[in-house]
Design a protein that fits this description.
Radius of gyration: 15 Å
Number of strands: 6
Structural class: alpha/beta
Largest sheet: 6 strands, parallel
Oligomer: single chain
Distance between the termini: 16 Å
Number of helices: 6
Length: 175
Amino acid sequence: MTTVFLDRDGVINRNAKPHEYISSPEKFIMLPGAAEGVALLNKAGFQVFLATNQRGIARGIISVSDLDRIHSYMKSLLAKEGAHLDGIYYCPHNENQCDCRKPGTGMLEKAARDFKVDRNHCWMVGDKKSDVLCGKSFGAKTVLIGNENEFGADYLCRNLKSAAELICKLEEKEL
């Protein structure tokens, strides 16, 4: 079974302003094509997991309870479009404190322990260098969301919907 790991900020929702955090559901703004992209991956029968660094917890800017509220809101927005995530993994730590913070692979390794993950059919979709490095270290194919492939991802897409279409095509699944 194909597994797709998604970063959150910049892939599913709009990034916060520099030095700010998505700290409440009100600050969570879904990106165009994001829910549709997740729904396409679901329809293809792929496992879809969120893998997101959440350093704001370590910095005391948001609590785990705040993050749970944000993710509940995100899941409700996805559900309205017939989309769902099979699991949510997050790293609450500061840099250099753990192996789960991307570019470390700890979140992906945990998902692989919790669910059946075939690394020959595994993808990481993100918008930052740490996402690409994490995916490559895990053995996943990588998709960078953006306008320029500055981090050596395997593929470049403009948004999650186009990434989902590409993954479905390459995994030979009809849309």
